[in-house]
Amino acid sequence: MKMGIGRFSVSLMFLCIFFISGSLSKLQRLKHPVTKSDGSLSFLVVGDWGRQGEFNQSIVAHQMGIVGEQLDIDFVISVGDNFYEDGLKGETDPAFEASFSHIYTHPSLQKHWYAVLGNHDYRGNVEAQLSHVLTQKDWRWFCRRSFVLSSGMVEFFFVDTNPFVEKYFTDPGNHTYDWSNVLPRDRYISNLLHDLDLAIKKSRATWKFVVGHHGIKTAGHHGVTQELIDQLLPVLEENKVDLYINGHDHCLQHIGTDGETQFLTSGGGSKAWRGDVQPWDPKELKLYYDGQGFMSLHVTRSQVNFVYYDVFGNVLHQSSLSKRSLLL
Ligand SMILES: *[C@@H]1O[C@H](CO)[C@@H](O)[C@H](O)[C@H]1NC(C)=O
Ligand SMILES: *[C@@H]1O[C@H](CO)[C@@H](O)[C@H](O)[C@H]1NC(C)=O
User: Domains (ranges, CATH) in the chain?
Assistant: First the structure.
């Protein structure tokens, strides 16, 4: 009799654990199938771009097409500030075609585009940018606040970094941000951090990349995002995330210490040449380029290569990471 009760409470406990772990991570998940026979993955990263082709956006797009073809890319990642100045007005805003569909026309760019939102996108109608209506207009478009994308040996954790930034709430200047579905802010942030931490901990991918709009470590105009250093960085460090990839500063940048998370900025999709860079330890600052451009990444089981290009398609910098412990 006593044993029966014990067995009952043990199975109840398992039931509870199953129920809790099944319901905890609310991040949407999707898979991008691996098509190459060696299992490798190639993609481009561009940020801060939607200006109807202006400020060299079209030239960057053209070079992305050429590099995309050379690498036979699987998809493109957008790190936010997709539509300037104030996001999209609605699902029928012609800026969607003028800044996206009619600009990234090269055949090699006719792939899925996985996008997060930037602060400028939050100045418009956020739900419009997340809407399936846009995907019906252009099948490539996939934008969410936060989500997990699995592709073979890589798992990407896309994070909405906008609500972390205090000044958008306390000192928004003349800007209006669309915080519908974000408030209350504290709960949004704590749920997001919790879901992200859980999703990364559960991940069995060889490579773990986190993608957001705002820089954590950056020598660019905006400087480091202290809220992300305080709240997001510990999650990346604890879970040994390989790369953090962002935009926001309109530059190309690589900050990193060997053996730790590398910080890659690809915010050169259109307007650039701000002309300022903040002091940074030169041992860590491997690249700072103030002008336009984009990045490519090529991932195999044992290595990630990342390359930065300017508007002429010239390689500005390249670097790689290896998984040394693979055979242990
Ligand atoms: C376009 O790119 C060229 C080459 O980098 C640069 O000299 C020029 O200033 C850029 N134009 C704009 C508007 O940024
Ligand atoms: C707000 O807009 C007004 C009028 O356009 C301008 O004079 C002022 O400098 C702006 N304030 C900020 C903080 O940008």
Answer: 5-327 (3.60.21.10)
**Ligand nearest 54 Cα, by number?**
1
102 is annotated as an active-site residue: no
**What SS3 class is residue 175?**
coil
pLDDT at 325: 58
Residue 52, pLDDT > 50, answer yes
Q: State the pTM of this model.
A: 0.91
Candidates 106, 221, 222, 298; catalytic one: 222
Ligand 2 pocket, mutate which of 123, 171, 174, 175 (most atoms under 8 A from CB): 174
Distance CA 161, CA 189 (A): 9
Strand pairing class (147-151; 28-31): parallel
| pLDDT per residue as tens digits for the range 84-119 | 999 999 999 999 999 999 999 999 999 999 999 999
User: What is the C-alpha to C-alpha distance for residues 151 and 23, in angstroms, rounded to an integer?
Assistant: 23
Q: Rounded to whole angstroms, how far apart are CA atoms 41 and 24?
A: 30
d(CA 113, CA 75): 6
For tokens 């307007």, the residue is 271
3-state secondary structure of 119: coil
What is the C-alpha separation between 89 and 287, in angstroms, rounded?
36
Q: What is the whole-number distance in angstroms between the Cα of residue 29 and the centre of ligand 1?
A: 38
Which of helix, strand or coil describes residue 305? strand
Please tell me if the CB atom of residue 171 comes closer than 6 angstroms to any atom of ligand 2.
no
Nearest to 266 by CA among 125, 72, 64: 64
Residue range 206-246, pLDDT digits in tens: 999 999 999 999 999 999 999 999 999 999 999 999 999 99
| Contact present, 126 and 180 (Cβ < 8 Å) | yes
